[in-house]
């Protein structure tokens, strides 16, 4: 799906409203029996559905049909009884179904794109940021004027666990570390797995090396109580 659909829904809504107004003006001033301008209502319905959801797409189809009926009555070239025909019912049914289906597809696509984006940024084993996402966060944080602390940690004994109990046990240990780090994070903190047994924390609320060191030592002690031994640097 084009980027405008997933990243610029506001532009699509504006385009839909402008298109509704254009079709309405053409229907009022130009429509004569047999010309077929009402069929253009599908375009703004589709634009609105792409920007929103199935329900909003259906509402757009209903509004488009009601607008067609209202403007048709006001159009001096049309007589109101001619509006209530099988053709009008088909326009209503088609526009509502059109808006519903496109809205459902667009909403499903946005969810899928969001999930893929999340997966691309997360370590598959621990759910923490992966190396690529961590580098992006670190670069963005370094570009800000406010100070932050960067903590790096090595998990002690992972190789021994892998050799003694197998890699499944090692993976479980890595997940335990990740869960423990998540519980220790504050709002605004970021945690990442940047290597096999290496983790990194970005802590924006620590403006001095002394506070970074104190936090690293505190994390070491709290993780040790969980049976997890990590060596922190800052």
In brief:
This protein is of the alpha+beta class.
Can you describe what's shown?
The protein is an alpha+beta fold. 65% of the residues lie in helices and 9% in strands. It has ten helices and four strands. It has a four-stranded antiparallel beta sheet, sandwiched between helices. Helix 2 (9-29) runs parallel beside helix 4 (54-74) and helix 3 runs antiparallel to helix 4 (54-74). It is elongated and about 85 Å long.
Based on helices, strands and strand pairing, what is the structural class? Answer: alpha+beta
- The share of residues in extended strands comes to 5-15%
Helix content: 55-70%
Strands, total number: 4
Order of helices and strands: HHHHHHHEHHEEHE
Strand order of the largest sheet: 2-3-1-4
- Number of helical runs? 10
- Residue stretches low in confidence (pLDDT < 50, at least 5 long) are 1-6
Main sheet attributes: strand count, strand direction, barrel closure: 4 strands, antiparallel
Rounded radius of gyration (Å):
29 Å
Gap from first CA to last CA: 43 Å
Principal-axes geometry comes out as elongated
Give the mean pLDDT. Answer: 87
């Amino acid at each position: 799906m084009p980027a405008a659909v997933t990243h610029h829904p506001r532009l699509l809504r504006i385009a839909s409203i402008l298109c509704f107004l254009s079709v309405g003006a053409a229907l009022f001033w130009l429509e004569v029996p047999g010309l077929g301008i009402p069929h253009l209502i599908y375009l703004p319905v589709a634009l609105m559905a792409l920007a929103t959801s199935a329900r909003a797409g259906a509402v757009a189809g209903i509004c488009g049909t009601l607008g067609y009926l209202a403007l048709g009555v006001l159009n001096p070239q049309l007589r109101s009884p001619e509006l209530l025909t099988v053709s009008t019912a088909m326009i209503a049914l088609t526009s509502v179904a059109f808006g519903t289906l496109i809205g459902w597809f667009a909403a499903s696509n946005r969810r899928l794109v969001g999930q893929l984006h999340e997966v691309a940024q997360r370590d598959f084993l621990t759910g923490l940021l992966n190396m690529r996402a961590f580098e992006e966060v670190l670069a963005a944080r370094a570009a800000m004027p406010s100070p932050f602390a960067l903590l790096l940690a090595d998990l002690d004994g992972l190789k021994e666990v892998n050799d003694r109990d197998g890699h499944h046990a090692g993976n479980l240990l890595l997940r335990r570390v990740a869960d423990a780090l998540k519980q220790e994070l504050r709002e605004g903190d970021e945690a990442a797995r940047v290597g096999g047994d290496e983790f990194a924390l970005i802590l924006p609320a620590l403006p001095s090396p002394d506070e970074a060191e104190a936090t690293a030592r505190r994390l070491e002690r709290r993780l040790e109580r969980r049976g997890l031994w990590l060596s922190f640097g800052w």
